[in-house]
Amino acid sequence: MAELRWHPLTKDWVMIASHRQNRPQMPKDWCPFCPGPDNDKVPKSFDVLKYDNDFPALSQNPPAMDDVATKIYKTAPSYGKCEVVLYSPEHTVTLPELPESHVRKLVDLWTERFSELSQDEKIKYIFIFENRGDVVGVTMPHPHGQIYGYSFIPKKLELELTSSKEHHEETGHCLFCDMINDEVKDGRRVIFENEDFICFLPFFSEYPYGVYIASKSHKQYLTEFTEREKDNLAKAVREAAGTLDNLFGYTFPYMMCMHQGPVNSGDTSDYYHFHIEFFPPMRSADKQKFNASSETGAWAHCNPTAPEATSEELRAAYKKYIQSQK
Predict the structure, then answer these.
(1) Residue 305: per-residue pLDDT
(2) Cα–Cα dist 83/61, whole Å
(3) What is the side-by-side strand order in the sheet with 49-52?
(4) Which of 16, 257, 273, 317 is spaced 20 to 30 Å from 22 by Cα?
């Protein structure tokens, strides 16, 4: 079974993909993403690679829907695309261990896939992300991220778009540009910056170490960035991951989520702004921050730390990472 089902209370679509429940456990001594004589799905050598998901939740050839819809319970085809992006042929390397020139190739691949997927007019949102670490449910340690092309705009992104549009209509400004100005003016939550990107722990951070990376220029898509901006995006992503890894001296788990404007959905360029959100599920070196009833059932988040204090820890970790690269 693979279809979309409408959630009438939140006005959002839920992907039903029961076929993913039967995904096999990979043998401990074999990885489907590593080049090798027994693997015909990846080339013998590569730097970065797009790999079609073997068990996709969305498909450009979706199966017929089950006959379960009612007036309230709507269904829709599970149309879309699910891709895996392999960061490296090396099985154990991490993103901050890769050279900047290699991460730039990753940025180029993200941009290429975004451009390609946006040509499909049925796709309305392209979501580039990485799940990292056992704590967030990752079963494949090989360095990789994913790309989902949805046939709808997910609720969180829809809320961001609505808030950004309302702010622009009221003030004539981009909401995210104003947020960046406030963060720079205050300064306490800024972790690092380069010519084109800034990394900060937001005033409203829901997670103790939930940093954002944002473009300093008002652009909404990867495809709008100049060559220098792509270089500096690679640098910022690498350094943000390296900062998290240097907080407590181990490979830090996180969810990295790239937010861009929607595609094939009208012009949002005046008010939407490219940024990346990190959701690291640890509140200290050995304690996990769980999304419990308040966060999950009410969407009422509680951060057990003050962003101004944890920003100091992050800046120290950033300096440690930069020194380790010299």
Answers:
(1) 96
(2) 14
(3) 49-52, 80-86, 144-150, 125-132, 254-259, 275-279, 212-215, 197-200, 190-193
(4) 257
